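[Q] Does anyone have a clean structure-token version of this?
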Amino acid sequence: MFTTTTLGALSDLLGFLGNEQRLRILKSIAEKEKYAREISEELGISRPLVTIYLKQLEKRGLAVGTARVTDDPPLMRRYYRAVPFTLVVDLDLIKNLREE
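[A] Here you go.
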């Protein structure tokens, strides 16, 4: 479960999750562990953008990446999977957030 103590932090998180492409990527790796090219081909999003979004998801703790050696080129791939989480935003939470 995500916890936040400021209005700004909540706004930032909701804005981050408000991006449809990020949500599609998160949905994709929630179903099965995948690497950037797989996700790119599946969703029709450029590989560089998928890579950027995966790193952002990982930085925020919403995804975990694991490097693995493969038999096919490239020989090293980073596979990502979603991290289970719960996000609850209600009026009580908002009333208790600090302003920055």
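[Q] Thanks! Anything notable?
[A] The longest strand covers residues 63-69.
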